[in-house]
Amino acid sequence: MLEKSKKPSLRKERAILIGLFGPDIPKWLAAEYLNELMLLADTAGAETVEQLLQNRPHPDPATYIGKGKLNGLKQLVSEREADLILFDDDLTATQIRNIEKVTKIKVLDRSGIILDIFASRAKTAAAKTQVELAQLQYLLPRLTRFWTHLSRQKGGIGTKGPGETQIETDRRLIGKRIATLKEKLEKLDRQRTTQRKGRESITRVALIGYTNAGKSTLMNALTQTNVLAENRLFATLDSTVRRLDLENHEVLLSDTVGFIRKLPHGLIESFKSTLDEVRDADVLLHVVDSTSNLIEDAIEVVEETLRDLGIEKPRTILAFNKLDAIDPEKVVQLKGDFPGSLFISAHRGIGLAALQEKLEEIIQEEYVEFNYYLPISQYRAVAYLHQAGVVDKEHYDGEFVQIKGSITKEERDRFESLLSELNEQLSV
User: Fold this and answer.
1) Domain CATH number, residue 401
2) 190 assigned to some structural domain
3) Is the Cβ–Cβ distance between 235 and 229 less than 8 Å?
4) pLDDT of 279-307, one tens digit each?
5) Which of 54, 96, 293, 362 has the fewest CB atoms inside 10 Å of its own CB, making it the most exposed?
6) Domain end point (choices 334, 364, 394)
7) What residue numbers bound the domain in which 175 lies?
8) Which helix (H) or strand (E) holds 223?
9) Are 344 and 312 a contacting pair, CB within 8 Å?
10) 132 and 233: one domain?
């Protein structure tokens, strides 16, 4: 009797990570950036076997690290049995071609690995379309023929989605596909806009923050739902919207894709429809990982990305998450550096009551009181106030109703327009 053949064990791709430090980036900061790149590699499914930091004032235009270092890298690839080299900066097509020619293995830059992660995590039609568009825009100037043999047979990091067919696809076909995807995204965007219009009367709060700050965990804690929350980068790609009942107001809370340093521009462009949840929000809840060694850097990345998207939101709550994992001394320091910020632990439920009170306070600032005496025949007007505002008192007196409460200034103006329209109809 023949023995059943055992399935070969799936070995993780082995990656060598490379970054530069110099006059503009100190060595300690470059090391932190490389640690983040290691997290990206882990999220993509690779095992980091070596990290290299080189002191250069600027990347070599031909090989990024210089010809001598490249020959040393070839030897290291052999010693570590590496399958992949990851660079912490974006590479040109020339650099990729030259490095691959010497090392004989795959080469990816920071944008490439981020796009690969997005490709593996895209679930909905919108996310898949957005990722494919970004991948093709990234691929177009970087067409290379070195690893034709890896494109279909071996797969692996950097070969998901459009990467599988990159060798067979010429520039003309890619350009045509990009145009098709843009049209598809415009259609999906119109559908999203229609959906959002149905939620206009409810205050919208968007969770924003650097990737892995704990936004999804916070959404689960606040809304008692079960949004995917992983201790990995980019656990969330699609916006998730949930209803949150505060003491006096009802809000729609949306969890959005996390930001990251050097987020590929094509991704920002492609994900504009997803990030419209941020653009249309009334309040931004900026979640920060308080355990990070680069807190100020992470905050700046988020604010810079918002500026790139043309989003200016004066009403922003800064919430430092993972309070249970830091020392009291760091809390004191952060309170001094960021006055008015909140400190929470979404995982343990610490500080969530204070966070909801702050949300109530900010929302209430936009409300004005109303006191209307309306004919009960104008039921549309009464219904509007119930839907768009907070009704404190409602008293019926014969053919009239007195209704008191509060409403946002924007909704008050809409209501006044509706009232004028109804009065004109009655006078005809």
Assistant:
1) 3.30.70
2) no
3) yes
4) 888 899 999 999 999 999 999 999 988 88
5) 293
6) 364
7) 123-183
8) helix 215-223
9) no
10) no
Maximum C-alpha span of the chain: 96
| Residue located via tokens 């790149």 | 37
**Residue 7: inside a domain, yes or no?**
no
pLDDT score recorded for residue 147: 40
CB 418 within 8 Å of CB 382: no
User: Does 228 lie in the same domain as 338?
Assistant: yes
DSSP 8-class letter at 52: E
Mind giving me the DSSP string for 303-358? HHHHHHTT---S-EEEEEE-GGGS-HHHHHHHHHHSTT-EE-BTTTTBTHHHHHHH
Lookup: tokens for 289: 């990982």
The confidence score (pLDDT) of residue 274 equals 61
Which pairs with CB-CB distance under 8 Å and at least 24 residues apart come from 62-68?
62/94, 62/95, 62/98, 63/95, 63/98, 63/99, 63/102, 64/18, 64/20, 64/89, 64/91, 64/95, 64/99, 65/18, 65/20
- Same domain as 357, residue 378: no
- Over residues 51-82, the pLDDT tens digits come to 999 999 999 999 999 999 999 999 999 999 99
Looking at the structure, tell me whether residues 277 and 135 fall in a common domain: no
> Is the pLDDT higher at 194 or at 206?
206
Residues paired with 289 in a beta bridge: 321
Bridge-partner residues for 240, per DSSP?
A: 255
Contact 19, 52 (CB under 8 A): yes
Give how many domains the chain has, as a whole number: 4
